[in-house]
Design brief:
With 259 residues, the chain is α/β, with parallel strands linked by helices. It folds into two domains: 191 residues, Rossmann fold (3-Layer(aba) Sandwich), CATH 3.40.50; 60 residues, S-adenosyl-L-methionine-dependent methyltransferases (N-terminal domain of TfIIb, Single Sheet), CATH 2.20.25.110. Helix content is 25%, strand content 37%. The chain contains six helices and twelve strands. The chain has a seven-stranded mixed sheet. A five-stranded mixed sheet has the order 1-10-9-8-7. β3, α4 and β4 form a beta-alpha-beta unit. The longest helix has 14 residues. It is globular. The termini are far apart. S-adenosylmethionine (SAM) binds next to loops.
Length: 259
């Protein structure tokens, strides 16, 4: 087995095979939540930290006018090529979700699987929500998915995913190495096992996330007063069930509406 240390986001094809294969539930949830929670029609959609664009290109194919940014140029390039391949006339660029401006406001935005928690300090998180508030028109929505730190019970400390295409199998494992709730920082180990009949490659990485209890997240939302909370759901992506947040909640989708 060959082992390589590097950023998991530098291998967009492997990332996309694992996290892109299970897109339907999120995709339908997004389309439904735009309809249900935005005031007025949604045509223009933006994704900060869009990565490989696994959801964005599908929204583009469905007729939305899409755009996205990501810090990782390799992911951006992957996404851009994908747009071209699928005839999507979207715009995607390398940028920081805590420091960007759009040429004109969009009707809706989304950020589904913890990317927001990559912003590791209070200033960055706040700046992101402020920038997003400028990027989304009044009555538009921002659908934000993240894991909370529960204040009761034992938090989940590990997750694994596997996907296969032909003879290529990618298995990922992400586990919490350190959780410092005082500094609000969770450091996770990551491995990607990439297996073909002739090769076994292991990519190893370490990523850090800012932690949020529900109280900490609500405090942040109160600080950025441009948003109102329209609904809360969870990672079952069932739009028909609004899920109340409790002390044991972990996965959370906030639907924020621009005031
Ligand atoms: C878990 S991936 C999610 C990608 C995509 N949103 C999805 O749903 O598949 C997190 C992404 O956040 C990006 N990222 C991390 N920090 C960022 C920042 N400050 N600004 C923009 N993108 C960032 C990473 O490069 C990576 O592509």
């Amino acid at each position: 087995m060959e082992t390589v240390r590097g950023s998991m986001y530098d291998f967009p094809a492997y990332y996309d095979l694992v996290y892109g294969s299970d897109w339907q539930a999120e995709y339908h949830f997004l389309c439904g939540s735009f309809q249900r929670y935005a005031d007025g029609p949604v045509r223009r959609v933006f994704e900060p930290a869009c990565g490989t664009g696994r959801l964005l290109f599908r929204l583009g194919r469905a007729g939305y006018d899409v755009s996205g940014l990501d810090l990782n140029p390799r992911a951006v390039e992957y996404c851009r090529r994908r747009f071209v391949r699928h005839g999507v006339r979207g715009r995607v660029w390398t940028g920081d979700m805590a420091d960007f401006e759009l040429p004109r406001p969009v009707d809706a935005a989304f950020n589904m699987i913890n990317s927001f928690r990559h912003l590791q300090d209070a200033a960055g998180a706040r700046r992101h929500l402020e920038r997003m508030a400028r990027a989304v028109r009044r009555g538009g929505v921002y659908v934000l998915g993240l894991h909370l730190t529960p204040t009761q019970g034992v938090p989940t400390s590990e997750e694994s995913w596997e996907a296969r295409r032909g003879h290529l199998v990618v298995r990922t494992r992400l586990w919490v190495k350190r959780r410092d709730l005082r500094r609000r920082l969770e450091t996770c180990g990551v491995t990607y096992d990439v297996v073909t009949p002739s090769r076994h490659l292991r990519l190893t990485d370490e990523v850090s996330f800012r932690t949020y209890t529900w109280a900490q997240l609500r405090r942040l939302l109160r600080e950025v007063s441009a948003w109102e909370l329209a609904a809360t759901h969870d990672f079952s992506y069932d739009l028909s069930v609004a899920v109340p947040v409790t002390s044991t909640s972990e996965d959370l989708i906030l639907v924020l509406r621009k005031k």
